[in-house]
Amino acid sequence: MPNAKLVGLVGNFSRPSKSYALVETVAGLAAKRYGFRTQLHDLTDIGPSLGNARHHKDLDEVARQVLQNIVSADVLVVGSPTYKGSYTGLFKHFFDLVDPLALQGKPVILTATGGGDRHALIVEHQLRPLFGFFMAHTLPSAVYAADRDFVDYRLVSEPIRGRAEQAVAELGAFFPQRSLHAEAAE
After folding, report:
1. What average pLDDT does the segment 63-70 reach?
2. Least buried of 8, 36, 108, 162, by fewest C-beta within 10 Å?
3. In the chain, what are the domains?
4. What's the first-to-final CA gap in the chain, in angstroms?
5. Is 56 exposed, middle or buried (0-12, 13-18, 19+ CB in 10 A)?
């Protein structure tokens, strides 16, 4: 699939953010391995029209473009900071505006960040069911990182980076030719 597009969506408004840094790391690893074009968005990119939108038509042009980027992506990397054991409310609200069939069959790498290990199950108990509803293919390996895994909003943990590489390698089931090419080039 030439010129395949990977889109990342981060469920927070803070910049810089650890969640953005994690999605950016995963997207960068995938782009390097498979040659994907990448676009990353966070809730700030979606803008203020999200909060009042009841339907995707209620979004302003910028937010509609972000939604279109996600729907048209060949691969998604999604991530959210963990609040009270779940993803952010506006992240969920954004996906409430996505057509239920729009993500069907799309490979999705799940990521999340939190203060400590207590929040690690967000990917299994919150994110995986959300994308299961959309009949997307969530990859088996999800990536969770705690505050201690970052320095100055950069991922510094080698075990977490290894987990991200494992998740990216699982995309080879969807892009086998690209995966073989990448391995031959190394």
Report:
1. 97
2. 162
3. 5-185 (3.40.50.360)
4. 20
5. middle
